[in-house]
């Protein structure tokens, strides 16, 4: 499902630009998200000097979940998202954005505080009943959703910078390009089709083992780390007003609104209280770290983690060796100290360990091979039925019936119109659809005028997408990518 949506998205005729507030708005209304507490680790990935934070990951995941949910009439579930690898798609899209941000900064592009303030002031979610930006409403909404103004304004900054780099890539469409795109868009094919299904595929144990032998390097156990840990949580001591005021006076530059104005103590009180308790706990954590190293204190829990457990300081752990201590790091609502007891390297799975996963690959490859063989034979004596005339954006007609669902039919049309063959086939997981184009026509000029704006936008978007695709290939060579999050382990 997700593969089709990702591919089909290229051909949406209206450019989809969703602002930062749409990302956050998705999170506000409870769309799918991952529980990434920023106190647990610094980032999920790094591109050049640009880190991808957990907040950014969650917002991107929420945006994608919202997008696919709306495409599926709100029937998209967390289980389906996990199956589709939505978390990995979120990471990949963020990596692409960070590549473009790095390039934008190399070009000297900047976003001023005035631009951020202007954008923020026009986000209606923060407007009061009078339609005016309300800073108290702004702070309250962010606080309720565990975002600081600094974090949110950084997201706005990056979004505005991405818009600037995209404007550079948004080149003028030539008349010849527009004519070609219009012809492609308005072309109609009269089609005959025949659907061939694959029967249940029996598993041949010897062939299955051969599939494993050929692909066994793809099936590895995860590298794991046995850690001894010690967790410290803040005391419930009461902070008096003087201590609160003194800490605020010393650190008030850390508490600012979107325009850079320092917040007063009342506005930042909750965060100040939290910071005081964590600063006190940090001293205690450092003392405990020394005591643990001297064997004057015992670790309280042994755990095993892997490279997908981003709540832990993976960079330090991955670079460490057995016996190394990990200094206090923020974890949940406190601090944790760890010691690397044992490092278990990734190993190639045995045939029995990998059997279930290899079976899926075997059936998929076997099905594809059988369908392709049947499709080639059927092409020689094609006896399809006439299903009518369709353009690239047509909905499924009644003559198609149950031969394909709506998503499959859209994918089928896309491949037909992207192919230069008048007679061929399209493969799906469980069927092959053989087709023949028996006539082609161009829709009338009146329809071209009706769709002119859409055609221009789609042509511009397609050209920009192709340019961006080539640029990203080059940027990957310029800015090193480090992934700390490898995917959900659920």
Q: What does this protein look like?
A:
- Helix 5 packs across helix 8, helix 10 (205-215) packs across helix 14 and helix 11 (241-251) crosses helix 12.
- This protein has helices at 2-8, 20-28, 54-71, 78-84, 86-106, 113-121, 135-144, 149-169, 175-186, 205-215, 241-251, 265-293, 314-319, 351-380, 406-418, 445-450, 452-478, and strands at residues 45-47, 50-52, 187-197, 224-232, 301-306, 325-331, 334-344, 385-391, 423-427, 431-442, 481-483.
- It has 490 residues and is of the alpha+beta class.
- The two termini are 20 Å apart.
- It is built from 17 helices and 11 strands.
- The strands form 3 sheets. It has a 4-stranded antiparallel sheet, sandwiched between helices.
- The model is unreliable at 1-40 (pLDDT under 50).
Task: Walk me through the topology.
Elements: H1 2-8, H2 20-28, E1 45-47, E2 50-52, H3 54-71, H4 78-84, H5 86-106, H6 113-121, H7 135-144, H8 149-169, H9 175-186, E3 187-197, H10 205-215, E4 224-232, H11 241-251, H12 265-293, E5 301-306, H13 314-319, E6 325-331, E7 334-344, H14 351-380, E8 385-391, H15 406-418, E9 423-427, E10 431-442, H16 445-450, H17 452-478, E11 481-483
Antiparallel strand pairs: 1-2, 1-11, 3-8, 3-10, 4-5, 4-7, 6-7, 9-10
The gist of it:
This protein is of the alpha+beta class.
Distance from N terminus to C terminus (CA atoms, Å) equals 20 Å
Q: Which strand order does the major sheet show? A: 8-3-10-9
CATH architecture of the largest domain: Orthogonal Bundle
Radius of gyration: 28 Å
Uncertain spans: 1-40
Number of strands: 11
Biggest β-sheet strands, sense, barrel:
4 strands, antiparallel
- H/E element sequence: HHEEHHHHHHHEHEHHEHEEHEHEEHHE
Give the number of domains. Answer: 3
What is the CATH topology classification name of the largest domain? Triger factor/SurA peptide-binding fold
Shape: globular
Oligomer: single chain
Please identify the structural class as seen in this structure. alpha+beta
Roughly what percent helix? 40-55%
Strand percentage: 15-25%
Average pLDDT metric: 83
Number of helices: 17
């Amino acid at each position: 499902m997700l593969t089709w949506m990702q591919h089909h998205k290229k051909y949406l005729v209206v450019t989809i630009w969703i602002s930062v507030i749409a990302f956050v708005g998705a999170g506000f209304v409870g769309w799918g998200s991952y529980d990434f507490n920023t106190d647990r680790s610094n980032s999920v990935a790094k591109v050049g000097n640009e880190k991808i934070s957990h907040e950014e990951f969650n917002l991107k995941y929420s945006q994608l979940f919202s997008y696919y949910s709306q495409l599926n009439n709100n029937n998209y579930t967390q289980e389906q998202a996990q199956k589709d690898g939505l978390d990995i798609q979120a990471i990949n899209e963020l990596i692409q954005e960070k590549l473009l941000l790095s390039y934008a900064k190399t070009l000297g592009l900047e976003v001023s505080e005035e631009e951020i303030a202007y954008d923020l002031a026009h986000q209606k979610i923060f407007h009061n009943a009078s339609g005016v930006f309300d800073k108290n409403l702004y702070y309250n909404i962010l606080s309720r959703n565990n975002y600081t103004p600094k974090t949110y304004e950084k997201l706005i900054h990056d979004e505005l910078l991405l818009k600037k780099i995209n404007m550079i890539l948004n080149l003028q469409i030539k008349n010849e390009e527009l004519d070609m795109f219009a012809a492609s868009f308005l072309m109609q094919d009269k089609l005959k089709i025949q659907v061939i299904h694959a029967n249940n595929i029996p598993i041949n144990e010897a062939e299955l083992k051969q599939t494993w032998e050929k692909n066994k390097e793809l099936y590895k156990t995860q590298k794991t780390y046995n850690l001894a840990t010690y967790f410290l949580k803040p005391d419930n001591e009461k902070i008096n007003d003087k201590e609160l005021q003194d800490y605020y006076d010393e650190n008030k530059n850390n508490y600012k609104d979107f325009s850079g104005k320092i917040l007063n103590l009342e506005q930042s009180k909750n965060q100040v209280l939290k910071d005081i308790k964590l600063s006190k706990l940090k001293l205690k954590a450092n003392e405990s770290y020394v005591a643990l190293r001297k064997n004057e204190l015992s670790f309280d829990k042994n755990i095993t983690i892997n490279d997908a457990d981003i709540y832990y300081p993976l960079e330090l752990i991955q670079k460490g060796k057995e016996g190394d201590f990990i200094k206090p790091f923020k974890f949940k609502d406190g601090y944790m100290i760890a010691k690397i007891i044992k490092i278990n390297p990734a190993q190639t799975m045995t045939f029995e360990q990998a059997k279930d996963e290899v079976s899926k690959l075997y059936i998929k490859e076997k099905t594809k091979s059988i369908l392709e063989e049947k499709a080639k034979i059927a092409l020689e004596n094609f006896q399809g039925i006439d299903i009518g005339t369709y353009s690239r954006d047509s909905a499924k007609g009644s003559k198609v019936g149950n031969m394909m669902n709506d998503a499959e039919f859209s994918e089928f049309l896309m491949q037909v119109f992207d192919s230069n063959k008048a007679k061929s086939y399209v493969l799906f997981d469980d069927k092959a659809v053989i087709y023949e184009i028996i006539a082609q026509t161009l829709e009338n000029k009146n329809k071209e005028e009706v769709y002119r704006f859409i055609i221009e936008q789609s042509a511009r978007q397609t050209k920009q997408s192709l340019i961006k695709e080539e640029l990203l290939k080059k940027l990957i060579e310029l800015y090193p990518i480090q992934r700390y999050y490898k995917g959900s382990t659920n």
